[in-house]
Amino acid sequence: MLPHLLHIYGPLWIQSYGVMIAISFICFLTITYNLERRKHLISDELYLNTVYIGLVAGIIGGRLLTIINTPEAFSQHWYEVFFPWVGGLTVLGAILGVIIAVTGYLMYHSVPVLPLLDIAAVYTPLMQSIGRIGCFLSGCCYGIPASSGCWWAVTFSDPACQAPLNIPLHPAQLYTMVGSFTVFLGLFLFAKKLYPRTGALTFLYLVLENINRFVTDFWRSDREALHYYNIMESSISLSTMQTWSLVIGLVALIGLCIVLFTTKNHRLDHK
Known about the structure:
By secondary structure, the chain is mainly alpha-helical. Helices cover 58% and strands 7% of the residues. The protein has one domain (4-262). It has helices at residues 16-33, 36-41, 44-69, 91-108, 113-138, 172-194, 200-216, 240-262; strands at 4-9, 12-15, 227-231, 234-238. Strand 1 and strand 2 form a beta hairpin.
């Protein structure tokens, strides 16, 4: 597609992936910063600090899980682990990094954690869906080869793309993008109409987004380290990321059940 947008100097380029990540972050920050509900929970300055800490933690967490899952990708040039555009970031790792860092930071400043995470949970899948456009443009997270009847298949021709060239592939990045945007719409309407209990949006987001990754991963080409399970006399293969998604999704489902019976209802203001 279009991995490079603008040449700076020598090997330095403005990458489409980085641009889309920046756009997604700006959208998330702009929307959540102006929410009335957010202003009642945390001061502007402290919120900006929280967001920036979450951004750094997300990058670190996403990168660490990428390195853990695909260490062979950096065997030739170990220093490339510090180049986020090489190998990319793992979304699940980024989510875990953000939750751990932000929770610790908010608790340190005596800010209610779950109500603020609920606000973030609504708009995080919107941010993820925008970021997936960057994956599509750069050719990372590409899909498996498509059949001849798959008219929506995509073919990458730019040598700078990470995907195989001139082969019709499933647009797995767009599948995940649509899934994340659907999660955003569902959470937005749920928060606006049904006044969910405190913490419900956070755990529901984790359940739905992990379902999204679990399902769309079947169309991805980078399904390393497959694990085989016998379920009802049938063998099914799951990738490492699908196993992660399954575990995190189940834990989040338990958390969702707990908050539904132990916390109070509240409304998120979307002004």
